[in-house]
Automatic annotation (TrEMBL):
Keywords: Cell outer membrane, Ion transport, Iron, Iron transport, Membrane, Receptor, Signal, TonB box, Transmembrane, Transmembrane beta strand, Transport. It comes from the Bacteria. Residues 309-759 form the TonB-dependent receptor-like beta-barrel domain. One of its GO terms (biological process) is iron ion transport. This is TonB-dependent receptor. Residues 43-151 form the TonB-dependent receptor plug domain. It is found in: Cell outer membrane. Residues 1-27 form the signal peptide. Gene3D superfamilies: TonB-dependent receptor, beta-barrel domain, TonB-dependent receptor, plug domain. Pfam families: Plug (PF07715), TonB_dep_Rec_b-barrel (PF00593).
């Protein structure tokens, strides 16, 4: 029999929710052993705030995306982004806001021990999972490079010591998504186990594109081919097809050595990607002369419909996919971990990771519905990461223990910006321009770090933890401009003002944990962390232009308690925190008259303060065995203390606050102010109040069957979906409700599961894009920092909308369970 004793030290701290998901039909919330500090410890002695979701809960609510995870974790918010940026994650109001695929996210993703910062990686990781851990606050010691806001750690499933065959099919009624899964797992020899997991899904998409012929009552206004437009091939907006595969091998030839290898591949294709979402705010109305550019049928509301045409390829040189907006992503990811006991109670661990992603996209650059847009956005992005970590960890019986380690990362990001120009407009303006710009950005990075921690049991009840990570990171930025290649001008290297940057800093951490009894723990910690600066890669820089931005830093701490009461039937946890951020990396958009669009840059906000309280409780009532009730809440204040270089929104006047940094070159040379002070304003995606509550009830029925019922309600107060804090940039408060009911046979040989997610059908804007969508800058430039807004008025907003209600029916078969394994 294969003895599976995984030695991979998982990154997690478990609060009450982790016990909820693991709770059997029993009397108590059982003790849980975790490895939050890369060593096995009781949950009661971990000085970290986190939420852990086990496999049962993941499957119960169909949590296969970070959006679903956010509904289970108060303080975790998500903004989906266009093109290669992928998912942007915020914890306690701190996260990534900029549309820049070369920036490291403030909330890191860690999959099977490897740290990644590319938002697209969430899709590949969230499949056949064993557990998900969300660690709140700065994480400096245990997860590769330090993460200023937190870590989402995903551990995928391993082979067990018995043969397992799983067949699962599912159908989602709102998007008509069809899904199939296959898992084959078990021992190959006494020392070697293997697991193969496959998943395929095909969805029509949640939203409907009303620009498709026959839907709109005035189809002649949509997709005019004589003006560069083209009607979409389908009403299905953001329809998606993807498949994923993961192979795992777990080898334990001796009692002192084990190795785990994982190979992942994912292909994600959206053949009719709208890219920019749907227009959500049109301050100048929808029926004026300029608004003909976005068509006469646009309601400019967040709903389940959008209105975006394709492009006539005859008018866009070198446009991809015949002018049909699309995205296509391929990902390859592998990790190799081994553990060797070099001496008794002393283990050497190695984790090697490799990640490769290739994304190809094209979107309608200004979301038009009648005219072809001023430009198409052709983008390609590739990224390769190679990481290596070594750790030496002690597990002595004495008062002192330690961990020492080293980390290395080598990365390369390439991002192609290509903007094929509408040749009708080019002809009208007597311009011989096939493209508004074409440039290849390359960012090479190399990082080294050393880290260590000492744990000292001053008394059996009092532990002092002290650690530090030193990181040295260098990045270089190269831009090759080939805009004029059509005129015989060879591609040339842009002479950037600062093509190389480096970071060299320490991230210390100090914790004190007091456990007077097995049922009570008090803890406090002080932390400092930083995230390296990088470069903007989304624009078309010229000679002498600066594209770099500085490191992001955070200092602060938290204190809390963990209590177990009523004979282990009640768990209560609470923590208060305060952190000061400096040079927070945020988004700035500036209007570019050449392209008629707002170009996104990453800049540093001087300072921000984040403080609040996390609380949660879990209870298994004695009168109703099998029932677990839970609730969690987060009160959070996240505000800029000093941010006087924030961009102005398009059309913002002097009286409305655009009154800083006068530039004579602004507004087409007419002059104007280009900045505003957002000190005291909220950070992006930072609701002041967030909470969730629910129950899990499992009870035997009909002899050997098991009925499982569950429900979860999550609430978030209003928050900004764009960092510029305009009145129409707020996402209103919302409540989402999810529920599930499942019936399974003996030993889970079969299971039927019905899942309703977001039953309240809330359409949430995690990200709002700002641009002159009404006229694409063709009928007069947007004016900012002047007495009046100008002829083009105020910029419109496009919402990257999260899907609304989904209803899944899933059937799972485990034939090996029928045979008794």
């Amino acid at each position: 029999m294969l003895l599976i004793r995984p030695r991979r030290l998982q990154s997690a701290t478990v609060l009450a929710l982790s016990l909820i998901v693991a709770a059997p039909v029993s009397a108590q919330l059982e003790e849980v052993i975790v490895t939050a500090r890369k060593r096995e410890e009781s949950i009661m002695k971990i000085p970290v705030v986190a939420t852990t979701l086990g496999r049962e809960r993941i499957e119960q609510f169909g949590l296969d995306s970070v959006n679903g995870i956010s509904d289970q974790v108060p303080g975790l918010n998500v903004g989906n982004q266009v093109l290669a940026s992928g998912v942007q994650v915020t914890l306690r109001g701190v996260g990534t806001s900029t549309l820049n695929p070369a920036v490291d996210q403030s909330v890191a993703l860690n999959v099977d021990g490897m740290q990644m910062t590319q938002g697209y990686a969430y899709r590949m990781a969230m499949f056949d999972m064993g557990r998900v851990e969300v660690l709140k606050g700065p994480q400096a010691l245990f997860y590769g490079k330090a993460s200023p806001a937190g870590v989402i750690s995903i551990t995928t499933a391993d082979p067990g010591d018995e043969l397992e065959l799983l067949l699962r099919g599912g159908y989602e009624f709102e998007t008509e998504e069809k899904m199939t899964e296959l898992v084959l797992s078990g021992p190959l020899t006494d020392t070697l186990g293997a697991r193969l997991a496959l998943k395929y899904a095909d969805s029509d998409g949640y939203f409907t594109n009303t620009a498709e012929p026959g839907y709109d009552p005035l189809p002649e206004l949509l997709g005019d081919p004589a003006l560069g437009g083209r009607t979409p091939d389908s009403r299905d907006f953001n329809a998606n097809e993807y498949w994923m595969a993961r192979a795992t091998a777990l080898w334990e030839p001796t009692d002192v050595f084990s190795a785990r290898f994982k190979l992942n591949y994912a292909h994600d294709e959206t053949p009719n990607n709208g890219g920019l979402g749907q227009l959500s705010s049109c301050p100048d109305g929808t029926d004026g002369l300029f608004l003909n550019f976005i068509g006469g049928s646009e309601n400019c509301k967040v709903d389940d419909k959008t209105n975006v045409i394709s492009l006539n390829p005859d008018f866009y040189p070198n446009v991809k996919n015949g002018g049909r907006p699309f995205s296509d992503a391929e990902q390859l990811f592998t990790t190799l971990e081994w553990n060797y006991e070099v001496a008794e109670d002393l283990t050497l661990t190695s984790v090697t990771g490799y990640y490769d992603i290739d994304i190809e996209t094209m979107i309608n650059g200004t979301a038009t519905t009648q005219f072809g847009p001023a430009f198409a956005a052709n983008n390609d992005m590739t990224r390769e990461d190679l990481t290596q970590e070594l750790r030496l960890t002690s597990d002595y019986d004495g008062a002192l223990n330690f961990m020492l380690g080293a980390f290395y990362q080598d990365s390369t990001t390439e991002f192609l910006v290509d903007l094929p120009f509408n040749q009708i407009i080019a002809g009208a303006q007597a311009l011989d321009l096939p493209t508004l710009g074409r440039a290849l950005h390359t960012v090479d990075g190399e990082a080294w770090s050393l880290f260590g921690q000492v744990l000292w049991n001053i008394t059996p009840e009092l532990e002092l933890g002290a650690g530090v990570r030193w990181t040295d990171e260098e990045r270089t930025h190269t831009v090759i401009d080939s805009t004029a290649a059509v005129f015989g001008v060879p591609p040339f290297k842009v002479n950037l003002a600062e093509p190389e940057i480096s970071s060299d800093d320490f991230s210390p951490e100090l914790s004190l944990t007091y456990t007077p009894t097995d049922d009570l723990t008090l803890f406090a910690s002080l932390k400092r962390a930083f995230k390296s600066g990088s470069f903007d890669v989304a624009g078309l820089p010229g000679d002498g232009e600066k594209t770099s931005f500085d490191d992001e830093k955070v200092t602060g701490g938290e204190a809390g308690l963990k209590a177990r009461m009523a004979g282990s039937r009640v768990l209560f946890n609470a923590a208060a925190y305060y952190y000061e951020f400096s040079d927070l990396q945020v988004e700035r958009s500036d209007f570019d008259a050449k392209t008629g669009r707002f170009l996104t840059h990453t800049i540093n906000a001087a300072s921000a303060d984040v403080y609040g309280i996390d609380m949660d409780i879990a209870w298994t009532p004695e009168a109703l065995e099998g029932m677990t009730l839970y609730a969690a809440g987060n009160w959070n204040r996240a505000e800029y203390a000093d941010f006087d270089n924030a961009a102005c929104s398009g059309g913002q006047t002097i009286a409305e606050g655009c009154n800083l940094n006068y530039s004579p070159n602004a507004n087409g040379g007419a002059g104007g102010y280009i900045a505003q002070d957002l000190g005291g304003e909220s950070l992006l995606r930072a609701p002041e109040w967030a909470a969730n509550a629910g129950f899990d009830y499992r009870v035997p029925v009909f002899g050997d069957m098991l009925l499982a019922l569950g429900a979860n309600a999550s609430y978030a107060s209003k928050y900004l979906a764009n960092p510029l804090a305009r009145d129409d940039m707020w996402q209103d408060a919302y409540t989402k409700v999810s529920a599930s009911i499942g019936l399974s046979g003996r030993d889970e040989a079969w299971e039927v599961l019905l899942i309703g997610d977001n039953l309240t059908d809330e359409l949430v804007c995690g990200s709002l894009g700002e641009a002159d969508y009404a006229n694409a800058g063709l009928f007069g430039d947007i004016v900012t920092g002047a007495e009046t807004a100008g002829a083009s008025g105020v910029t419109e907003l496009a919402c990257i909308t999260d899907p609304g209600r989904t209803v899944w029916l899933k059937l799972t078969l485990r034939p090996t369970a029928w045979l008794g394994g």
